[in-house]
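Worked problem 6 (solution included).
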Amino acid sequence: MSWMTALLVMLVPLCGFLLLGLPVAFAFFVVNIIGAVVFLGGDAGLAQMVRNSVTALTNYSLAPIPLFILMGEVLLHTGVAFRAINAIEKLIARVPGRLPIVSVCGGTVFAALSGSSLANTAMLGSALLPDMLKRGYDPGIAMGPIMATGGIAMLIPPSALAVLLGSLAGISISKLLIAGIVPALIMGVLFIGYILAVCVMDPSRSPRDDSPAARGWARYRPFVRDVLPLSLVFIAVIGSLVGGIATPTESAALGCVASVLAAIGYRSLTWRNLVASLRETARVSVMTLFIIAASVTFAQILAFSGATDGLVELVSRSGLSPFGLVIGMVLILLFLGCFVDQVSMLMITIPLFIPLAHSAHIDLMWLGVLYLLTMEISFLTPPFGLLLFVMKGVAPPHITLGQVYRAAVPFLGLELLVLLLLLAFPAIGTWLPDVLVK
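Solution. The predicted structure is:
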């Protein structure tokens, strides 16, 4: 069997199952069973698939994933995150588009504490969207920043998907966690600049803010009380990594302890919300680990069948430069992002892209940041961007899906601009980790 036929045997059924709506983990397991029987030798192949799953799930480098998820869930379910959003709202006053700017600033802060784009968007949508619509904000300028800022959690540590990507692609997890900070901050600045420009040029999209602003210490007290202490959670994670005193797993554990202590300090931790946090962490973690277990066999079958080597050889003979190859990878990821979720994007492409990157001597750290950024963009790309549906779920019933799509378009353009900057200037993603992580 030729390598191209083997590649089709694996990819075509996988895409078909995903389009039919079969859960990602089950889709990969079904395709793996087919591949194990065809390429790995029947019963022996099935036994190898089981061994691969055990090996994948006992990988110590995956331990930060449930810990980062738990960290965000504790802050969300205990209401500590909502206190921070309210404090930032009091701090920002008398500027055009005040509440959309609050959503960008508050969402960026929560992204540094959560690591979950879905949780970030759901929290901001529940907390700010009803009030914005009630005050007369245009739905586009109200929903767009919330969705766009929700995706920033993909880039700013702690990011569970960054840990997953680093583990599967063989990229330093410590460096990858830090590499997304600069692109995320650039993105946040562009979002705020766009909101200000739109609200100044078209005041009808943003109502005039005549509410009396708190003065003096009353304005800054909530920020000092409810936001600054949470920086200790971020310091516990990033500071321990940068200082070289903790591995990614240990820093994630420190983050969990810090988030629980923060909830206790604010007298917000109860047995009920702790159980809710643990239950949601278990649900998301088990789903992710199932997919990881399936992906290891998927990559092995592609390699054993000759599909990976055949594709690498084909690209090598095509004469593409390393930059041209990266452009092709990014375009494929952007296309996949319109139809499949982020974990599926990783599972489908990593077994093919990483060998190609090695053969072309492409900087894996740069490629890793491009992966994270394209996955963030995929959250907003119609028709199946997950954040679009999260926003529709938390928005009032009169908001249509078409309005949600239109709200996302300008911010999607800004994210694509950051992607172009990262392609043109790789140091945007590689400079900070090279400086901080030794």
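Discussion: DSSP finds 22 helices and no strands in the chain.
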